[in-house]
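Preliminary data (for renewal application), adenosine-5'-triphosphate complex.
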Amino acid sequence: MSAGKARSRSNVLIVDDVPDFLKETSAVLRAHFGVTVCSSPLRGLRLIKQGGIDLLITTLVMRELDGLEVIRRVRGSGSALPIIMVTGFGNENTAIEATRVGATDYLTKPVEPEELIARVRRALTYADVQEEVDEPLVLSQDTTMLEVIEVCRRVARSPSRVLILGETGTGKELFARMLHARSQRAREPFVDVNCAAIPPNLLESELFGHERGAFTGATERRVGRFEEAGEGTLFLDEIGELGIAMQSKLLRVLQTGDFSRVGGSRNLRSQARVIAATNRDLNQEVQAGRFRADLYYRLNVVTLEVPPLRQRFGDIPILVRHFSRKFTQPDHQPLGFSSEAMQRLCAYGWPGNVRELEHLIERLSVLVTRGEVRLSDLPTHFQGLAEAAPVSPIPTNRPYHEALREFQRTYFQNLIAATHGNLAAAARQAGMDRSQFFRKVQSLRLITNS
Ligand SMILES: Nc1ncnc2c1ncn2[C@@H]1O[C@H](COP(=O)(O)OP(=O)(O)OP(=O)(O)O)[C@@H](O)[C@H]1O
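Predicted structure:
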């Protein structure tokens, strides 16, 4: 499908059991797209299965099947159909959940006609790009991470520069790749440069290229990373490590788009979108005079802050499962973990974050041949850890009810992690009956009501 196809009447299916909504929405879209309306979500799903639908608009609250379930079923069938979810006013959390389960976009009622048409067009064009691009998978069930993923999805389609902050190994590059894959530039190159890995005297030529004879050893003309990125994305990792001289050169490109190869006089223009990442506190670097404030503001149009793994224990079992599958040896089942071993993984601080976890699982997949990892299989620094995950310090600079909620979130998150996501076992351990437990973790937004 393409923008061209959108103009040549793509077929939009609108599903809702409120006749007025169907009438109003179809009246708006009919001038631009083919429209099918359907008051039964189940019938809507059948229509999608039959084919010929290019985009689905669904509302959230329907008697037969709610909108989230509709999205889940469409995605569960392996379909990449673009889906726009329309939610009632004040339903931000559901909107986030909708994108998590696979909605392409969402709108809040009342829906402005112009906005609706623009979003449908965009989703159709975007679907066209996605057909050819594999999106990297950022796995998480943590509320803060889900919010970061949601911002990432929203900002991906804009041309804005993004600064990604987070400790080493938290997934900053993965987010950068996701931003690229979800942008209109997805078919263009994604070029990454690790600013810390290149000696400072070579970095200028690496970024901007050089002409033949520009310096000793420059025997050939070389195209730099800005040129390589073309109209795609240039990911500048470890931007906090740039020296002051390079910062000025980078600032010039970001301000004007102009640059020239080292030893060259011709002005070249960069069309690339720049995404930068760092594990340093850039604000502090600016205060200390080590990072130019003007460059910081140029890079920092949108910030994504990726939380460290120790602040999202609930993600550990999910990531463990994911990496166990990834590193399964031929003719073997993915590794399992004894409860004791999993508890220790959840209690550990993970200074190297997800990368450290990934490497550990890779190692274990090779070394442990009996199928289940026991405590004694883990490296020695896991052996001495306390069994339960450490509770984060209780903040005293906040009102009691906020601190209490923080404690409750940590407690239940750790409990769910320690029981590998088995909610019945977690409820037993908490001394609560299942429905009481379920209501509690729902109210803390640790799981959703699906
Ligand atoms: N949420 C996640 N789901 C799945 N895989 C993840 C997730 N987060 C990180 N990873 C994986 O962990 C590894 C490290 O992630 P990544 O390289 O993106 O981290 P980083 O923050 O850019 O690290 P550095 O600061 O050292 O450059 C990668 O293999 C990545 O695919």
